[in-house]
Amino acid sequence: MKVVSFLPAATKMIYDMGLQEYLHGVTFECPKEAVNQPKVVRCILEGKNYSSIEIDRIFSASKAQGKSLYWVDDNLLESILPDVVFTQDICEVCNIDTVCTETAVMKLSKQPTLVPLSPNNLQDVFECAITIAKALGKEEVALNYLAGLQKKTDHILDQLRANRAPLKRIMLMEWIEPIYNCGHWIPFQIAAAGGVDMLSNPGGDSIVTQWDKILKYNPEVLVIAPCGFDMKRSMEEMELLTSKPDWTDLEAVKNNQVYIADFDMFTQPSVGTLVEGIEALACMFHPEIFKPSESIAKKFINHSKTVKSLRSV
């Protein structure tokens, strides 16, 4: 069986479950494990270093014109002739959608089975792993994989209960300019880590959120994880936030509780990375209870303390 993944999260789960022998093509932004796989899907933003404002403008213009940011290497796809193609319908900015995928595969001499993965909440993401493995005839592999991850989230919940940890008032930003709140599965990650984000949109799309609304909400902990940005990339744009009126009045800023985190723990919906995100969030919300592992510690930084350290140098 030959599989092509048009979705980085699907690619990640395929590797995490040890099913990569079936994989024959991926997207340009699939995880590092797939670096040597043929790149079937490309993007007009590939290799560019646009700012968050520029990316938002490019996407808005493309959407208004009815164009996609992505394109498929038809010749490469035909040479693979996959049996199964994994795709999605969650976000037209993050990944190629099912409509564009259908257009590409219609040209193939052999029609593959399209398997759309479109989770809305955290439980849906867990079920996506089963969907992937089932499509490959390996459902039991997914069940074992998920059982191990469930133990990690259960441990966090047990520790929160044992320590009677209070819910922290959180905001997680999915984009910096304009500011987007968080949606879909991320609010469920926040809840699993001992927080609540009242500005979020559980199970739905993230939306533009006005700065005045954030000031009134006044989060205790602010997490900044723009989609597609690692920590270094986000740091380059932090002035867009720190220059806003009354930034220093936020409780999160006053108490050194502003964090920058790698996007793949949140806006890349593979089960393993989302569980890493829950572990990281628990460490941010309740550092008196949770200490990050060596790998998790590399995935987020305390912006407030970093800025203070730089100023003292």
TrEMBL record:
Domain Fe/B12 periplasmic-binding: from-to ranges: 2-289
InterPro entries: ABC_transptr_periplasmic_BD, Vitamin_B12-ABC_binding
Pfam families per UniProt: Peripla_BP_2
Organism superkingdom: Bacteria
Official protein name in the record: ABC transporter substrate-binding protein
Species for this entry: Pedobacter psychrodurus
